[in-house]
Amino acid sequence: MAATLGCCAMLIGMNGCASVKKLFDDETPADAAEAGPSVAVYRLEIEAPSELRDLLLTYLDLSRFQNVPQSEDITPAEIGRLIAAAPAQVRALLETEGYFNPEVTVTRVGADATPAPARERAAGAQDAASASERAVPQPLPLLRVRVKPGPRAQIDHFALTAKGPLQQEADAGVLDARVLIAQVRNGWRLPPGAPFQQSEWSSAKNNALAKLRADGYPAAAISNSSARVDTQTHTVQLDVAADSGALYRIGPVRINGLQRYGENSVQRLSLLTPGEPYRESRLIDFQERLQKSGLFEGASVVLDADPETAEAAPVNVQLRELPLQQATFGAGYSANTGPRVTAEHTHRQPFGWEWISKNKLEVGPKLQSWHGELTSYPLEGLYRNLIAGNYERLRAVNEVRDSWTARIGRTQDTTQIERLYYLEATHSRLDTTSDTGTTTVSNDAFTGNYHWVYRDLDSLLLPTDGYTLSAEVSGGYAVSGTGAQSSGPFGRVYGRYTHYRPLGGAWFATARLEGGEVLASNRVGIPDTLLFRAGGDDSVRGYAYRSLGPTVDGALLSGRVLLTGSVEVARPISDRFPSLWGAAFIDAGNAADHWKNLHPVLGYGLGLRWRSPVGPLRMDVAYGDEVHKVRLHLSVGIAF
Prior knowledge:
Layout: E1 2-4, H1 21-24, H2 29-34, E2 38-40, E3 43-47, H3 50-59, H4 61-64, E4 67-69, H5 76-95, E5 103-109, H6 116-124, H7 131-134, E6 142-148, E7 154-163, H8 165-171, H9 175-186, H10 198-214, E8 221-230, E9 235-243, E10 250-256, H11 263-270, H12 280-292, E11 296-303, E12 313-321, E13 325-334, E14 338-347, E15 355-363, E16 367-376, E17 383-395, E18 399-413, E19 417-434, E20 437-457, E21 466-480, E22 488-504, E23 507-519, E24 551-552, E25 555-556, E26 561-572, E27 580-592, E28 601-612, E29 615-624, E30 629-636
Parallel strand pairs: 3-6, 7-9, 10-12
Antiparallel strand pairs: 1-8, 2-4, 5-6, 8-9, 11-12, 13-14, 14-15, 15-16, 16-17, 17-18, 18-19, 19-20, 20-21, 21-22, 22-23, 23-26, 24-25, 26-27, 27-28, 28-29, 29-30
Helix pairs in contact: 8-9, 9-10
């Protein structure tokens, strides 16, 4: 026996409602609240599997109208009509979950089925001698709904038919059209063998339509769909026909909102080719590049979907520019370097040039630094020219390090890949206090460098799935200012891999592996900023910042090799606070002068994560196994 599902939801709430006048006539929850306190008219029991019971308690009229305002009247006849309508309502609700042969019975339990308000008004007509009897609480009538849902229907057949220009191109042998049809079919979310649900059926159609609209056919629509149910075999046959509408191609880029910055910087970020088929992802990438350019507070990139211009559809870009200059002052605290105050200044057109100037000054008891940077507006191929410099004075673990760098190069930042090429001059002076006194080491280096970052994440700010990989390669010549060391060539490599993975049950895992090495003769003096230390928030928790490395004559030095790793599991603490997570972690690693001397140390503990809109705020309590101490770590953001 086959039946069409299209009318399954129409039965819900229709039967038995029109006659219950005062209760059900266009009454909203607010109306009910204004009518005064409500009282239970009867008791209701629903015997059904838990997930179906919740559905019936939410939508069944017997449940929704169980309580009425004290001032309202309801008769046994009206309750009888609700009872009579209940089986059909239950069947209609269960059909949306794929149960088409349920057994439903509704019974009254108890001899007196008169609702409570009516009984009390009748009692009011009795004489004073019966007042004590009226004071005795009378049991409410019990209505019991028993549901045996029967077998759940499963998808037996699915067919998707494309119509319009998409199918015409596929018939003509156009590969892109055939691939798109195959992708829609392969991505269908309700395949044969899956249980039928009305919500999943609607979601699957919307998902198929979204794929067509995102890949060249923004006017696509479902022209016909049917779900044929065989109640004897408990199977459903799904058929969908989608009319693609015209294939849209990219036309002119129309830019609105520019006052200070030229159109060239916007056009260079588009990467759109006139005449190419429309792809939603291409416009989203364009919009993200505009927002990351440092010139705009907001950006919107939208295709003009007028069918008359489908062959060359305009792309409308609406921009809100950032101010020409901007200053920011702040205060903060880091477990690595302690408290600090910061001042930042940005000029987006210094001296009328198409460059962005940034300066940042940071002052604290352990760290004083200045960083300055000039980057050009976007050039062809998403490149920018770069000039930068910085100075830093750092106090950490019985040492003081003064360093500066000067850099010139180019950057490229695409959706997934970030590249940086530059030449750099580096100076470092390290004053270390040990058992034998204070040792000073001063070195300089001139290097050529390449940095590369690849990201494949579900979210850049709050990732839970995907990975990041960063790599650095440097080569150059070191000049030693210390008698015990010599000048000479050297190389440096560094890599960091971080993986994010959902574990199910609201659990999430993060794993990190980090390593590096300086390639040079042992006598060549390398600036400390190019060597390695471990310990701290993004290294081995449970140890102070830069506290792990080789020790010579009681003095802690920086190493030429580095290896650290971390594994962490986390989950939301409660449904009430989904942004607050608890975490457990274990870290390991160290830095050393040679691989044979590298002895990893352990740190482990528990933490809290607040997944704020600007990135995760982390607070960790970690135990350093090597030093037998507990340390608190605070940090904001993620490290790539």
